[in-house]
Design brief:
The complex is a heterodimer. Chain A is mostly helical. Chain A has one domain: ABC transporter involved in vitamin B12 uptake, BtuC (Orthogonal Bundle). Chain A has a two-stranded antiparallel sheet. In chain A, helix 1 packs antiparallel against helix 11, helix 2 packs across helix 9 and helix 10 runs parallel beside helix 12. The longest helix of chain A has 32 residues. Chain B has two domains: 278 residues, Orthogonal Bundle (ABC transporter involved in vitamin B12 uptake, BtuC); 38 residues, no CATH class. Chain B is built from 17 helices and two strands. In chain B, strands 1-2 form a two-stranded antiparallel ribbon. In chain B, helix 2 packs antiparallel against helix 9, helix 4 crosses helix 9 and helix 6 packs antiparallel against helix 9. Chain B is globular. Chain B starts with a helix and ends with a helix. The chains are: A mainly alpha, B mainly alpha. Chains A and B meet through helix 4, helix 10 and helix 12 of A and helix 5, helix 11 and helix 13 of B.
């Protein structure tokens, strides 16, 4: 039993790292633009399908393919921001952007159905089928590689946010948009680039997700609801909170799966509801989240 | 006078509809359109008035459907007596809305929307996993031995009655003190609380009313289409479709919700019957596309936008005359009518700006 729990915890931490990658993109977008990108879930699936096409049609390795899919998803993000998000202003902006991104999600989902059909697919490579023995249980290599990838990318994001001029502009915009504008930051450019970066990480997240789960165009819904739970739990707009909440939630889910496999996801949402009853701003949230 | 005449004409047209078009394929559109009118107006009672956008209405819709299915099977109710279970479905909807609202209404804006989505997924998952909901297969409704040719007509009138009743309730809520409190919360919740509105109680009441109505019409829908499964009763597209209906017609207005439902539901039904739109994928793309066009080009919906256009034509571009009473104290006609943007057409947002 102890070994099973240990295995579940290790699994949870490794998968949590991958979720952290997707959630950080979502929470960054919220922090800078004050919107929730409902399309994030289906964009992860789009990223997974791009990797799928590259590996089955062009026989490019999944990790090497990221060199193509990450810039591609960055462009997708910038285009979505330029075409739709940028144009929304006014008092109902918050709810409008939510609905617009939902509509974008629907359109992408429909396009994916047209191209790839409704059958479940999964990404395969030599390291998705072979495992390594750790502490007496077997762990597929992809979990370890995926976790390392997530660590590297989150580190890159951190460096970008805290060690560069652009990162300073992003953080300034997150704190106070008007003040950022006043000191000469091009807020629109920051917003577009942040949206692009937030979407670009879904390429990596989608690749690892697709290599560890079977997916189809419809999988985005389940994913987005988990991601939303994670970023609310971590506190909207908090990068560190998103990291902690991903690892925490996925570990809890993984451990609960040992006894109640079908109900594990309920624990996920129940944790969210409980935390919000006690602390409406999440673990690391700012006060403003509650204000209207 | 014009309004009453228009309403009477509308009532005559909707009542005569199944007499004129007897083809079941056509009346099917009518039944589902009326069901969605009810759902959209019920959504509007809560979300349109308070500004809290709920993406969890399918929780009530599905629960109503399952409540009727479980009760009918458990007590062996068959035939038309099944309709006697509808009040029970309303009670179930209200009973779910109370704890749901008590938790979700503690938070605002994005967080509220996300909580409603979370509740939605919890309910879908419960429908998948409980034994009394019969898992993935779902439930079949009791058999109804009505002839196939006129099967839709009674359902049409039931749905029409629900639609009319819900519009009536929404109208009463809108012009009551309760409705004013709801809209005060929408404009500025903290200030409304400061002025003595018991925000939680008021929000929760509207949420419960909305949930009870949605649960009842969900049960009617279930008996009409004869089955419910977790994916159809608790459908994420359902939630988005209602919001789309409300926004397309005009967010916050009753007529807007009705118009949106009457446009969107038959359109999506028709798209799904066309062979070239196989698998529903294109209808999704189109639905999303319409939505984007509406939000980006007429963000306030058809009714307010076309109202402005007509007013613009009538006044030929000159700003409309704003009567002094509209900005000062309320006219003698009653405060409710002054607060209602539909019945106060002289206060043109275009002219006043």
């Amino acid at each position: 039993m102890a070994r099973e729990i240990l295995e579940a915890v290790v699994d949870g931490i490794l998968i949590g790292g991958v979720y952290a990658l997707m959630a950080v993109g979502l929470t960054l977008i919220f922090g800078v633009l004050d919107i929730i990108n409902i399309a994030q879930g289906v964009l992860v699936i789009l990223g997974a399908y791009l990797s799928y096409s590259l590996s089955t049609k062009a026989h490019i390795d999944l990790f090497v393919g990221l060199l193509i899919t990450i810039p591609a998803m960055f462009i997708v993000g910038v285009v979505i921001h330029w075409a739709f998000i940028r144009r929304l202003r006014g008092t109902e902006r918050t709810s409008m952007t939510l609905l617009v991104t939902y509509a974008v999600a629907l359109i992408i989902e429909g396009i994916l159905y047209r191209f790839y059909g409704a059958d479940d697919v999964t990404l395969t490579a030599s390291y998705t089928t072979t495992s390594v023995r750790v502490f007496g249980f077997y762990l597929p290599w992809i979990y370890i590689y995926g976790f390392i990838l997530a660590l590297v990318l989150v580190a890159v994001l951190y460096a970008l946010l805290y060690r560069t001029r652009f990162g300073r502009a992003v953080r300034a915009t997150m704190q106070d948009e008007t003040a950022a504008r006043l000191v000469g930051i091009d807020v629109n450019r920051v917003a577009a680039l942040t949206f692009g970066i937030g979407v670009a990480v879904t390429a990596a997240g989608g690749m690892v997700f697709g290599a560890t789960n079977a997916f189809n165009a419809n999988s985005g819904y389940d994913l987005i609801s988990r991601l939303l739970a994670i970023i609310i739990l971590g506190g909207l707009g908090s990068v560190g909170g998103a990291l902690a909440a991903s690892v925490f939630m996925l570990t809890v889910e993984s451990v609960v799966t040992i006894w109640y496999p079908t109900w594990a996801i309920v624990v996920f949402y129940a944790a969210l509801v409980l935390v919000l009853l006690i602390r409406p701003t999440g673990f690391f949230g700012r006060r403003e989240v509650r204000a209207q | 006078m014009l309004r009453i005449g228009g309403l009477a004409a509308l009532a005559a047209v909707t009542i005569a509809f199944p007499k004129v078009y007897t083809n079941p394929a056509i009346t099917n559109y009518g039944v589902l359109a009326m069901i969605y009118v009810t759902v959209a107006v019920a959504w509007n009672i809560f979300s349109g008035n308070t500004g809290y956008i709920s993406l969890g209405q399918a929780v009530f819709f599905g629960s109503g459907a399952y409540a009727m299915g479980v009760a009918a099977h458990g007590w062996n109710v068959t035939g038309t007596t099944v309709f006697a279970l509808l009040p029970l479905c309303a009670v179930v909807g209200a009973a779910i809305a109370v704890p749901f609202g008590l938790i979700a209404l503690r938070v605002r804006r994005h967080t509220f929307i996300v909580i409603t989505i979370a509740f939605f997924f919890i309910f879908q998952l419960m429908a998948f996993n409980f034994s009394f909901t019969n898992g993935t297969i779902g439930l079949n409704s009791p058999f109804l031995n009505w002839p196939a040719t006129s099967y839709n007509t009674p359902f049409y009138y039931i749905a029409l009655a629900y639609a009319a009743g819900t519009i009536g309730i929404a109208w009463l809520v809108r012009r009551s003190r309760f409705g004013l409190q709801l809209r005060a919360i929408r404009d500025d919740e903290d200030r409304a609380r400061g002025l003595g509105v018991r925000a939680m109680r008021v929000k929760l009441s509207a949420f419960v009313i909305s949930g009870a109505i949605t649960a009842m019409i969900g049960a009617v829908w279930f008996y009409y289409i004869n089955q419910v499964a977790p994916q159809t009763g608790f459908d994420p597209l359902f939630d988005l479709t209602i919001v789309l209906m409300a926004f397309l017609g005009g967010y916050g207005s009753i007529a807007g919700a009705v118009l949106g439902a009457v446009i969107i539901e038959p359109l999506t039904l028709w798209l799904n019957t066309q062979p070239q739109f196989s698998g529903g994928a294109l209808s999704e793309i189109l639905l999303g596309g319409i939505f984007l066009v509406v939000v980006l080009f007429m963000p306030r919906g058809i009714i307010p936008t076309s109202g402005e256009l007509i007013r613009g034509l009538r006044t030929r571009g000159r700003p409309a005359v704003v009567p002094a009473t509209a900005t000062g104290t309320a006219p003698v006609g009653g405060p409710a009518s002054a607060a209602d943007p539909e019945s106060a057409p002289s206060v043109s947002p275009g002219g006043a700006r």
